[in-house]
Each structure stands twice: as C-alpha cells, then as structure tokens.
Amino acid sequence: MSATSDFVLAQPLFCHHDHHISYADLDAQRESFGYDSLLSYATADLATAEGPRAPQGPMTRERIERLWPKMRLTGYGRAVSLGCRELFGLEFAPENFEAISEALQTALAGRTAAEVCAHFVAEKARNLWTIHDYIDDRYGYLPSASALNPHLYPNSYRFTLRLDHLLDIADDAPIAEIEAFTGRSAHSLDQLLQRLNEVVTTFLATGKLAAIKIAVAYLRDLSVSEPTRHEAENAFNRIRNRTLAWGGLRQDKAAVDATTSRALSDFLLHALMGRASDEDLPVQVHTGYLEGNWRPLDGTQALRLLPLFGRYRDVRFDVFHGSWPLTAEMGAIAKTYPNVWIDMCWLWAMNPGQAAQALSQWLDCLPFNKIFAYGADTWLPWGNVGYSLLAKQGVARVLEEKISSGVMSQADAREVAEAIMLRNGLEFYGPE
Q1: φ, ψ at 18 (rounded to 5°)
Q2: Mean pLDDT of the chain
Q3: Which of 106, 244, 408, 409 yields a CA-CA distance of 20 to 30 A from 58?
Q4: Is 364 domain-assigned?
Q5: Is 70 exceeded by the pLDDT of residue 166?
Q6: How many CA atoms lie within 13 A of 20 on its CB side?
Q7: CATH number reported for the structural domain that contains residue 163 in this entry
Q8: Within a domain: residue 51?
Q9: Contact 169, 265 (CB under 8 A)
Q10: DSSP per-residue string spanning 328-388
Q11: What is the per-residue pLDDT for 135?
C-alpha cells in the first residue's frame, strides 16, 4: 500500500447516516444474529441476480448459497466481504457460514449492547460520530423519539427528526400521532403548525437533534409547490372531516387525492424549512436511488429541489447519496448553491466505481469542505466495518490518482482526506 492509502485507512470517520437498532432491540435479537446479518443491502443484489419469478418469502440459505457467487463483486457484496475478513479473518462464502455465525456470536457474548456498539462502530469501524436516522413503525410517525431516551444509543450519536408521512399526508394518522406526542389537539391548520413547532422544540431541548431529515422520495416525488394557505386549509379540512360526504361521496381512508393533499404536505414542509432557518438547523434530504428492488427512479433527482435551495438560502442542506446515479448534476448543484453540501453516505456501496469517479470530479469543481465522504447507512453495528473500509479504499484511490497526476501533493491529499472524512462533518454539525 502507498503512504496515502496507509494514511486514509488509519483515519477516523464522521458517519453522516445510519439506522442502527437500539440497545434494547439488539439485546432482544442477539441470539438470532448469524452470517446472514452481515448481508445488509446485499439482499437487494441477491434478488436482482435471481431475476423475476423468485420464490416468495425471506431469502433462504439455499438461495443465498446459489446467488452469492453471482453478486459478490458488486459494491454491496464487496462491503460484506471486507467486513467479514476484517472482523473474523474469514471469506464470506457458503462453506464458512457456520464459522461466521459462530465468530459473530463469540464477539457478542459477554458484551453489553453498549459494549457491542463501541466494539464494532468506534473501535473496528473508527466511526467517531454518527448521525442517526431510526425507522421503526412501532414508534409511529415520530420514530426519532428514540432521541429522547439517553439509554438507547451511544453518546456519540446525534439524531434526525423525520416526518415523512406528514409530508405525504392522505389521512389524519400523522396528525393524530403529533397530537399524541404533544398531548394537545390540532383542530385547525394553525393549531397543527403550533403542534409541529412544539415537536421541533421538544427535540431541540434534548441537545441531540442534528438535523431535520426529509426522505419523502420513498413516498412521492421531490418537487415542492408553493401552495396558498387556502389550498392547505382545504386539504386539512377534508382530512380532519373525512366522514363527511364531500361532493356526495364519503371516504374514510385516503380522504384526499394526491393533488389536494400535496398542498397541505408542501405547506407543512415550508413550515419546517422556516423553522430550520430560525434555528440554523441543517436539513438532510434523500435524493437519487432508493433502497431495495422495484423502486421508482423518476422524481428523486436533486434537480427537483432547486426551488427549495433557492428560497431557503440560509438553510444548510446535506444532500444524500450524491443523488446517484445523477452525480454530475449533483456537482453542478453544489457548485451553484452555496447552501448545498454533497453527502456520499451509502454511495460507496451502491456503486464504488462511480463513487470514485464522482469524488474525483467533485474535487475538481468544488471546495473540498463541501463534501462528506462517508455514511454507512446500515442497521447493525458490525455492518459499519465493511462499509467504512469500502469508503476508505475508494477515497485512497482517488487521492492517489490526484497525486500521480500532479493535481495534489501528499500534504494536499492528507488535508483533503481529513476534511472529507471527519472535519467537514464536525464543522457542519458541531456535535461536540
């Protein structure tokens, strides 16, 4: 390895995005974790390799053994292999599945959930800080309520406030959840805005709220309209009085169509952006590729957010996943809009080759303080090890090429590596 590679591989990381399960959930499930818990996003590539007419139900061992050789060289597959080798000294291969499960259980044994997280995330993956986005339907439409319990996650974790169902509202379930959380009713649009602000205030008071998270691309397109208050109130009234016969029709669920509901959703999104502006609170936005299979690609482009970036010029936007596959557009956006930062979380695993190409191009067109190089985006602490290594290897390759082509000196490359891997995140989020 080169001196640059050695330097990069030794660097600690700021993890801009993860979905780790809580201590309580880790303890409840710890005996069930085996070799297949290392797969993470690789299950999507297993399904892609299998093609249509696949059996229904979970990915069985027989299917994994049959499909793994076909997808082991993708980014997802390489992350699994890297983590398995680093943690257990084993190749992720069918003949080693029992040994991998046994090695993982040995690593978990005798460690509390907190010690498990410290071992894998802090010690092995060298992730010093983590921005955490917890998704679990058991916690309703306010999953980030986990931020209110200091005993669920490490002190190095900061949290996002995610209200996607409110930003894709079709019935009053998200409103009811906010009412339950605040203990106060929302009988009018003004009261709903008050409750929304109370939610933000509650999370701010924890001292651990890092950002507002918008991942609504999983539910709708990213275009944001400029609705009037009248349009938003009309949608609110239809939703809150859904059992009335509007136009001679009564419909209890999905009380409004997408056109009507979008006015309320976008009105509330603008209210959140206004609060982010008031509090100097960053906004994370999912753009580009969506997790899993059979997902839409249209409507997720970062280009659709330009009106939002232009209107809220004092809000700092952390734009996820490099908007892959449209990484060139993402570079142009970040170059044009000073309030936009590019986040490479998950990107190294989705497509390592294009991630390296994009980083190289972004370093040619952007100040390097506008790039965040890493976020594991995993569910289990040991998943971070392979994802961290994959990102570090990619960063090292890009910087080595910059040095060999004469664009950077060794000192330049080290400065860039420290910035995009850790310092930029510290300056942006200020978790300390």
Answers
A1: -150, 165
A2: 93
A3: 106
A4: yes
A5: yes
A6: 34
A7: 3.20.20.140
A8: no
A9: yes
A10: HHHHHHHHH-TTEEEE-TTHHHH-HHHHHHHHHHHHHHS-GGGEE------SSTTHHHHHH
A11: 55
Place of tokens 């409750």: 195
* Chain-centre distance for alpha carbon 222: 16
Is pLDDT at 139 greater than 70 in this prediction?
Answer: no
Query: What is the CB neighbour count within 10 angstroms for residue 336?
Result: 11
C-alpha distances (whole Å) from 374 to each of 79, 148, 187, 388 are: 13, 26, 43, 7
Contact (Cβ atoms closer than 8 angstroms) between residue 85 and residue 93: no
Tell me the per-residue pLDDT of 312-325, one tens digit each, with 9 for 90 and over.
999 999 999 999 99
Asked if 283 and 319 count as a contact pair (C-beta separation under 8 A), the reply is no
Amino acid type, 230:
H
User: What is the domain extent for residue 183?
Assistant: 3-32+113-224+269-429
Structural domains counted in the chain:
1
Write out pLDDT tens, residues 16-72: 999 999 999 999 999 999 999 999 999 999 999 999 999 988 899 999 999 999 999
Residue 306 lies in a domain: yes
State the average pLDDT over residues 157-165.
92
The reply to whether 396 falls in a domain is: yes
